[in-house]
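USER:
Make up one protein:

ASSISTANT:
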Amino acid sequence: MDNQLTCSLANTLKKLKQDKIAVLYGGNSAEREVSLNSGQAIAKGLEQSGFDVVLMDTKTVPLTELLNKKIDRVFIALHGRGGEDGCLQGALEYLNIPYTGSNVLGSSLSMDKVRSKQIFKACDLPTAPFIVVHKVDFETLPLANILTDLGGRVMVKPANEGSSIGMAQAQTIEQLHNALIEAFGFDTQVLLEAWIDGPEYTVAILGDIALPAIHMETPREFYDYEAKYQSTSTQYHCPSGLSESDEHDIKSLSLKAFHATGAKGWGRVDIMRNSAGQWQILEINTVPGMTETSLVPKAANIFGLNFSELVTNILLLSVKES
């Protein structure tokens, strides 16, 4: 059986290397710069593995070029709106072109912080208390009551942004008011989440396997955009320093959360541990950052996969899902 599986995998890989693979990157979202870096790294990794790769920036190249260039398969490297929220996935399905990662539903639900939190709660998965506020109600919001109900300190998150864009913490009425104004600049729905006082972790998912957890440490108030992409003081620990039992628990919980939103193929689950030692799921990323120094490649490296092997495995998973 093992020989048959190995032979089948080899045949699939051989066929994929005869295909023309488009890496879609860039785009128009607030995460464009991150996506440009991810796409370039992915294309390089695939080329090193022997794939025929075409890089396409969706900001300047229409999707119809996929047909003109006779593209057989797409590796999605677009972060945020338009690439990670189900829109692109639906367009590719209409064009009958297979692609990496989650399908329309899984992408849409995972990208929407409000819907994914509701799903976690419905599935009895641990996540911090939250309130959803709408831009249309902003002027009448009882900010003092909201702060009290959520423990006196909150995390403010636009419902459909990634990379911590538009996020802020608030523990006074003035801070909450200003944070909401900022967040409503990105979305008409905003998630207010009770502050979690504890360490932050992330678990990369590859198929049905949870890779080693990473513990992120930053001197900043939280793991924000600057801590992720600009700071030289952010520390990443992989192995995470968790006990064997805790590592097992965080992996198991991350897989459950990933499957709960319908996510598939590959991605990343962000999770924290509060001061009481309880896990609290934050969100699902279905197209996480993919430079050679990003979190998923870090975990894959500890697991035993270099960057080229990682992107090859993600591409292989797209065959399984299509």
